[in-house]
Amino acid sequence: MERNATSGHLPVMYRQVLDGLRVGGSGTYLDGTFGRGGHARGVLDQLGPGGRLLLMDKDPDAIAVAEREFGSDPRVSIFRGSFADLAGWDATAAGLDGVLFDLGVSSPQLDVAERGFSFGKDGPLDMRMDPDSGPSAAEWLATADDREIADVLWTYGEERQSRRIARAIVARREEQPLTRTAQLAELIASVMPRGKDKIHPATRSFQAIRIFINRELADLETGLDAALERLVPGGRLAVISFHSLEDRIVKQFINRHAKAPPANRRMPVEVEFTPVLQAIGGAQKADDDETASNPRARSAVLRVAEKLPLRDAA
User: Fold this and answer.
1) Full 3-state SS string of 298-309
2) Spatial CA neighbour of 97 closest among 280, 277, 302, 234
3) Is 115 a residue whose pLDDT tops 80?
4) 3-state SS track over 62-86
5) R_g over Cα of the chain
6) Under a CB-based contact definition with an 8 Å cutoff, are residues 96 and 182 in contact?
7) Model pTM?
8) With CB atoms counted within 10 Å of each terminal CB, which end of the chain scores lower, N or C?
9) Is 204 helix (H, G, I), strand (E, B) or coil?
10) How far is residue 63's CA from residue 89's CA, in Å, rounded to a whole number?
């Protein structure tokens, strides 16, 4: 496996991603989730002088790394923002030969307590990938009612104790504001029934709040549409997901554009379907060697699709 020598960050499913993108030396490729540049560096290594690499990330720390390590390369362009907005970036207007989304929170974000993503490291209860955009987790939890909190925990974390946790949050904030990750993690643990689950009691709740605060699933749906719009025929889309909610969206998106919908006997006329995507293989998982050295890869699922050429009208 390739390791980012600068940050020590392990890019998940590195070789599978590069194989899936099928990088050509003169193509234009977009990494919509730069992180610390592990995948981007691999793409750049395969580009010739005429190739282009477009880098995006919402996280200002990631953009700072991109500017420092890639900014002097004339083949590279860098934009701070969500991949949901990729079609609005002029650099993508000429078309893309490959698009990569590596979803979820990055290892460097989890490792820095001040970012507030991890219940294992006490820090400000923030969780924003872009700290300049929208309310923090603490700000949202300070005003949301228990029904809204419970809905978020159930919808994005599939937390079965969502109502109990939501009531506890509302009761606690009347006594003192929840401003630290350790406060929230300890509160959740205190109201969770003891069971056989090996994961920390706060895992699903932290995941749910993070997804909600960052609009991750909504951005994913918008970003997939934008990627399809900007891909040239023969261009590849590669998406790494880390939980079932993300992977379901990606799988359904590919299937919707690759397979005709089931026949409906109530429809008097069959609706013509023209596929615009082709799935390249099925869901790919990291191998045993990678998961042994990088536990984060255990939940990773990679899906790849290729944009099909337009069919001539009959």
Assistant:
1) HHCEEEEEEECC
2) 234
3) no
4) HHHHHHHHHCCCCCEEEEECCHHHH
5) 21
6) no
7) 0.90
8) C
9) helix
10) 16
Paired residues of 180 in beta bridges: 124
* Residues 69 and 37 sit within 8 Å (Cβ to Cβ): yes
Give the three-class secondary structure for 210: helix
Residue type, 183: Q
For tokens 């590919």, the residue is 254
% of the chain beyond a pLDDT of 70: 89
What is the CA 165 to chain-centroid distance, rounded?
Answer: 26
- φ, ψ for residue 99 (rounded to 5)? -135, 135
- The pLDDT of residue 107 is 66
The band of 266, judged by pLDDT with boundaries at 50, 70 and 90, is low
**Residue 237 identity:** L
Instruction: Give the mean model confidence (pLDDT) for residues 304-308.
Output: 98
pLDDT (tens digit, 9 = 90+) per residue, 24-83?
999 999 999 999 899 999 999 999 999 999 999 999 999 999 999 999 999 999 999 999
- Residue 88 gets which letter from DSSP? G
DSSP secondary-structure letter at 273?
-
Task: Tell me the C-alpha distance between 127 and 301, whole Å.
Answer: 23
Sequence-ordered list of residues with C-beta below 8 angstroms from that of 258, at least 6 positions apart, any chain? 275, 276, 277, 278, 279, 305
Q: In this model, does residue 1 exceed pLDDT 50?
A: no
Q: What is the pLDDT of residues 178-203, one digit of tens each?
A: 999 999 999 999 999 876 677 889 99
Is the C-alpha dihedral spanning 94, 41, 20, 63 positive or negative?
negative
